[in-house]
Amino acid sequence: MINFTYARATDVADAVRQIAADSTAKFIAGGTNLIDLMKEDVERPTRLIDISRLPLRTVEETKDGGVRIGALVPNSDLAWHPLIEQRYPILSSAILAGASQQLRNMASTGGNLLQRTRCAYFYDTATPCNKREPGSGCSAIDGFNRMHAILGTSDACIAAHPSDMCVALAALEARVHVSGPAGERVIPFADFHRLPGDQPQIDTNLKPDEIITAIELPAKGFSSNYTYLKIRDRLSYAFALVSVAAAIEFDGNRIKDARLALGSVAHKPWRDTSVEASLRGQTATQEVFMHAADLLLRNARGFSHNAFKINLARRTIVRAFAQAALGTPQSQSNKTIR
Ligand code: SF4
After folding, report:
1. Which atom of ligand 1 is found nearest the CA of 128?
2. Residue nearest to ligand 1 atom 1, measured at CA
């Protein structure tokens, strides 16, 4: 582990000032990913700026009927917050499917968005990795790639984004509030994370001198017909092979609106609005959901160890939508795939 200095930010403006003044500094909040990366010598900040005491821990209603979540709200507090449980249960469900209770108690909302891939080669400094060391190559493309992406990959990187919470935020069309030297701006969730392209070392469109201050949810929470379905190798404390956030709004027996986002299949939470558009006006049948799944996966590409994820994703989408249509959210303890 390298030596680093430690500083505490007194407010958001001070945090921005400190990070803008030192390109080798990193913010630390819960530290649930950064400390691991530092121990493995993947991240080497010379300065840690502690933002954990900034006043960004509130969950409050907005004037337009949505909810604003402070960036430092712990994942556990967010999952169990009455506003989230009642109006955005798909978000509660996704958060509780992730990590462990201890990690959820420490991890912050903003930090969840910034966690890095769990590609084993990224954490192994003895192997080439374009994300860790640009230009060195990708060990996963011809290596053990069972957990890796099947959509939006590039010749430089096939890593998958590991978050559960972000899949629900993508489905809900959250917005990310950030602050930087140029002031404040809002990033639609779909534009926050990047595909790897030829710069896989850059995970998000957050600038190095910006800080996330809040996540905003729009009024519509799909609280009646939703499912977050996570398929993984063991029941808890495991990253997803495939996860699906599916939500439906009905008008009679017709689908008025639908949302579909997938996790662990791409470098970012994967959402395709053309698939959602294809569902509007349809009835909730297996055939309709199978068509939606095929449409979403039309450009999926498997690698030597993960081609099974294409069919797994197809079946998980159909089951998630079927359960959402019935209004019976998936129990995380029931992993039967029909
Ligand atoms: Fe690195 Fe991405 Fe390749 Fe993994 S998939 S080894 S993170 S470049």
Report:
1. 6
2. 129
Helix 286-296 vs helix 308-326: angle between axes, to the nearest 10 degrees?
A: 140
Question: To test ligand 1's pocket by mutation, which of 125, 129, 151 has the most ligand atoms within 8 angstroms of CB?
Answer: 129
CB count within 10 Å of CB 32 equals: 20
Identify the CATH assignment for 5-52 out of 3.30.43.10, 3.40.50.150, 3.40.50.12780, 3.40.190.10: 3.30.43.10
How far apart, in whole angstroms, are the C-alpha atoms of residue 140 and residue 130? 10
Name the closest-CA residue to atom 2, ligand 1: 157
Fold entry, domain 226-326: Enolase-like; domain 1 (3.30.390)
Does the CB atom of residue 171 touch ligand 1 within 6 A?
Answer: no
User: Residue 158 C-alpha to ligand 1 middle, in angstroms?
Assistant: 6
168-211 pLDDT, tens per residue?
Answer: 999 999 999 999 999 999 999 999 999 999 999 999 999 999 99
Question: Where does CATH 3.30.43.10 sit in the chain?
Answer: 5-52
**Closest CA relative to residue 88, chosen from 204, 173, 189:** 173
User: Given the DSSP bridges, would you call strands 25-28 and 47-50 parallel, antiparallel or unpaired?
Assistant: parallel
Amino acid in the structure at residue 298? R
* pLDDT 10s digits, 42-56: 999 999 999 999 999
Report whether residue 32 contacts ligand 1, using a CB cutoff of 6 Å: no
Question: Residues in the chain, how many?
Answer: 338
User: Residue 49's beta-bridge partner residues?
Assistant: 7, 27
Atom of ligand 1 nearest to the CA of 158: 5
HSE (CB half, 13 Å, CA atoms) of 302?
12
Please give the DSSP secondary-structure letter assigned to residue 300. -
Please, what's the b/e burial string for 46-82 (b: 16 or more CB within 10 A of its CB; e: otherwise)? eebbebbebebbebeeeeeebbbbbbbbbbbbbbebe
User: Which segments of the chain belong to CATH 3.30.390.50?
Assistant: 226-326
Q: What is the pLDDT of residues 96-128, one digit of tens each?
A: 999 999 999 999 999 999 999 999 999 999 999
This prediction has a pTM of: 0.97
